[in-house]
Amino acid sequence: MIREDVTVYFIRHGQTDWNAARRYQGQRDIPLNDKGRAQARRNGAALARLAPTIHTADYVASPLGRARETMEIVRATMALDPAGYRIEDVIKEIHYGHWEGQLAENIPIDDPAGLAERRLDPFHWRPCGGESYADLTARIRPWLTSLGRDTVVASHGGVGRTLQGILLDLAHDVILTLEAPQDRIMVLRRGEVGWL
C-alpha cells in the first residue's frame, strides 16, 4: 500500500490516432496527435496551479514515446525543464499481445474465442504473448509501495485503472470499467481518488 503522506498525480498520455480509432496500442510506440498534445498542455496548466509545492515532486514517465512526450509537454507548460524526469519501465502499458494493432470493432470477427475467454474473466484473461490485468497489478504494486514522496506520473490507461484498483481495494470486475480520461489528472492517495 502507498504511504499515507504520498500523493500520486497520475496523467494518462494524451490522445494518439490509435486511441481515436479505438485500436489496441498496448506497448506499441504510437505518437501523440495534436489533440493529445493539447490535452498534455491542459494537464500541465492544471499542475502549474499547484506551484511551488508540485515542483518538488518526483516526475516519472513510462518509456513509451506517447507518455514521454506528454511529460515533456506538461513540464514545459509548468515552466520546468522538459527533460527533468525519470523513465520507469515498470509503468509502461499493459501488453495486449496478439491484439495490439487491432481495431476493437474487429476483435469479434478476428478473435471470437479470445473475446469469449476475456468475457468470462477479464481481470485474469491474458492474450497470446501479452499480459492480464492480474499480471499488470503484480508489476505495478511493488513500484507503488516504493514511492517515498509525492510523484507526478505520465503513463497509460491500464496503469491508471490498476493504481485505482490497488489504492481503493476494488473488486476485479470493477477495475476494467474505470474511466481513464486523457484530459484530467487523477490525484491518488491511500483510499482516495480525486481529479484535477
Please describe what this structure looks like:
The protein has a single domain, classed as 3-Layer(aba) Sandwich (Rossmann fold). The protein contains eight helices and six strands, in the order βααβαβαααβααββ. A six-stranded mixed sheet has the order 3-2-4-1-5-6. The radius of gyration is 16 Å and the shape is globular. The two termini are 23 Å apart.
Structural class: alpha/beta
Shape: globular
Helix share, percent: 25-40%
Just name the CATH architecture. 3-Layer(aba) Sandwich
Low-confidence stretches: none
Overall domain count? 1
Count of extended strands: 6
Largest sheet: 6 strands, mixed
Order of helices and strands: EHHEHEHHHEHHEE
Proportion of residues in extended strands:
5-15%
Oligomer status: single chain
CATH class: Alpha Beta
Mean pLDDT: 96
CATH superfamily: Phosphoglycerate mutase-like
Radius of gyration: 16 Å
Tally of alpha and pi helices: 8
- Give the distance, in angstroms, between the N- and C-terminal Cα atoms: 23 Å
CATH topology, which one?
Answer: Rossmann fold
**Strand line-up across the major sheet:** 3-2-4-1-5-6
